[in-house]
Design a protein that fits this description.
about 180 residues; alpha/beta; six-stranded mixed beta sheet; 9 strands; binds guanosine-5'-monophosphate; binds magnesium ion
Length: about 180
């Protein structure tokens, strides 16, 4: 059987490492938000697996919703313009928001989404990202909860895609170069 694993050059973060870290982050958020009834907002589609695992590791009273955003790219650099393709349905006025994203790269996406949620009256907005690529930052933005710092390599798996494929890998890995070139 040909599986997607044959396209992977190396595993960067194993299933076990992911699970252990998500448990830690869930416990920290639970302690920080115990009485705050926060609203977890997942950024589709890349965060969906991290989001589902994180929620199950954070046993406090809370709500959840999703939004989808896309950023326009000019060549290889992000233009910084972010479009909301699907917005949350929950009223965020007075709520404590935890924005959950797969990866913080240039920072354009989360910078814009944070502003959007604040404009709509959120009491607070904190950022929880599975992966952080601090070397690529263009916007003054810091994550509040981070799973792992990663080098400037294109990663896939555990929700992250290449051309909408590889999201279902149970770990985070790097593709073989010939897969990009195909
Ligand atoms: P930012 O707005 O911070 O530049 O971009 C964040 C988005 O870019 C992420 O949500 C993700 O969709 C995409 N992205 C950035 N780096 C990577 C990467 O290494 N792998 C994948 N699959 N997506 C990435
Ligand atoms: Mg994304």
């Amino acid at each position: 059987m040909k599986t997607i694993e044959t396209d992977i050059l190396k595993v960067l973060i194993s299933e076990e490492e992911l699970h252990a870290r998500v448990l830690e982050i869930g416990a920290r958020i639970a302690a920080d938000y115990e009485d705050k009834d926060p609203l977890f907002v997942g950024v589709l589609r890349g965060s969906f697996i991290f989001f589902a695992d994180l929620m199950r590791c954070c046993p406090i009273r809370s709500g959840l919703d999703f939004l989808a955003a896309s950023s326009y790219h000019q060549g290889t650099s992000s233009s910084g313009v972010v479009k909301i393709d699907y917005d949350i349905k929950t009223d965020v006025a007075g709520r404590h928001i935890i924005l959950v994203e797969d990866i913080l790269d240039s920072g354009n996406t989360l910078y814009n989404l944070t502003g959007h949620l604040r404009d709509r009256g959120a009491e607070s907005v904190k950022l929880c990202v599975l992966l952080d690529k601090p070397s690529r930052r263009e916007k003054p933005i810091q994550p509040d909860y981070v799973g792992f710092e990663v080098p400037d390599e294109f990663v896939v798996g555990y929700g992250l895609d290449y051309a909408d494929r590889y999201r279902n890998l149970p770990y985070v890995g790097v593709l073989k170069p010939e897969v990009h070139e195909k």
